[in-house]
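Posted in: Protein Modeling Q&A

I'm a second-year student putting together a small comparison for a lab meeting, and my supervisor asked me to include a predicted structure for AB hydrolase-1 domain-containing protein. I've never done this before, so apologies if this is the wrong subforum. The sequence is pasted below exactly as I got it from our records. If anyone can share the structure token output, I'd also love a short note on what stands out.
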Amino acid sequence: MADSLAKVPSYPRPAEIPAPPNLPKYLYPGLPVELASVYPPPEHVLEPKPELPSGQRSPIWHEDKSIPYALTTHIVPAAYLREDPDDVLPESPSADGKISKDERKILVEKTEARLREMRRKYEDEERRRQEKALWVCLNRYVRTETSKKGGYTLFFAHANGFHKEAFEPLIWSLLSSPESQSLVQEIWVWEAYSHGDSALLNKGRLNSFSHTRSPVRDLLNFLIYFLPSSPNLQPLPVHLPRVRQAEVERRLRNGFLGPGSPRLPICCFGHSFGGAVSTLAAITHPALFTSLFLIDPVILYPTVDFYFKPSLLSLGAISRRASWKSREEARKGFLESPFFRTWDPRVLDLYVEAGLYLDKDTDTIRLKTSPIQEALLFNDAQIGGPEAWVRLWKKELDARIKLRWAMPGPGKPELDSRDNTSQQRVWLRPENASNIRIDGAGHLIVQEKPDALGKQIGVFLKELSSETRARL
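Accepted answer (user: helix_wrangler)
Welcome! Here is the predicted structure, written out as tokens:
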């Protein structure tokens, strides 16, 4: 491993890492979620089942015959019962020009303040589970070349405000290497229930606060109940069926470990919000995973007064423009923004293609992930992120799970402006862990440097395979 990382910038191990604040809410007894709370809805609740909101599509490499991986999109139920109570959520102010910029700014600030007020109340209340069925969309990329056998199953979880297709340029970079193709049999890219196509499936039912436990339960629900028993080439239905009950029970007991498993444990990749969710899932049921590759995850030292001062990220989300007359108008606007100009052009193309949809009721192009849903996850940042930080600090992640952090390059802003916070968090669990820094990339590494990141994932998988063979 040392040779393969020798030329890549990284953070050295710090002399010390501060303890979390000495407050009861940062003790986190038990597991992030109890496995007994992870299960799908009963079948009768799921009828009628919805169609894919955006249909099937071809991957961006479909004309490159040297990359023998096919793409299909699928639907599974989210975990049941939902923990988050319904509420009357504020709406993000319109950017249609009917009010002045100053008036809109005031409304944005009032909306953000209202969300923080609601969050403080929500966190003090007991969980009231409700019988509401939600849906989750996933993309599946599977190797179609039958001469290659075996390989890992990869699982990707996206950042807040993004969608499953954002990973596709990175996956293209990874699969451009024949050696990586031999190591990757199948890839699943997950979309949180309030994002992308999942949000379209759940339209009209996204009226509750977000808590990190919900996407953690959803992720585990897919791996335990719906991930097919083996990564074969057989066509899969759009609505994935539950695996056999005996297999569910085996996964609950042993995950994907042991001689009876038809699968290897999962290689999990999480960006930002997806990194925190993946970490808490791996702490909850480590036997499902062989490795975690965290892409600048929102795993942050607790901020005690977070909900008593405005969040710049929530303000930015609430003020985001959400509709356009056409995709062309949207693209033009994105290219005028410094935020989007740093992106790889392929990622921006996919954002325009797959991050937006045509609202047929108004003949308007809209964001699939609404500004208020993005703001809700930013509002949740001091719930799941600090929990993942504290649990890693307490060494709750199984040392068997290989851990790598991919972080912004030298000179780029850090998620936490306090001194040395990135250096400290990549060493929260020092056993079987390493970190890399991607030159020229900020927090949005997936969007800005997909080729460099894809190559580093290939290096990581090669190391993982070599270490696995050495233990045999």
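A couple of things worth pointing out for your meeting: The chain is about 35% helix and 15% strand. The chain has a mean pLDDT of 94.
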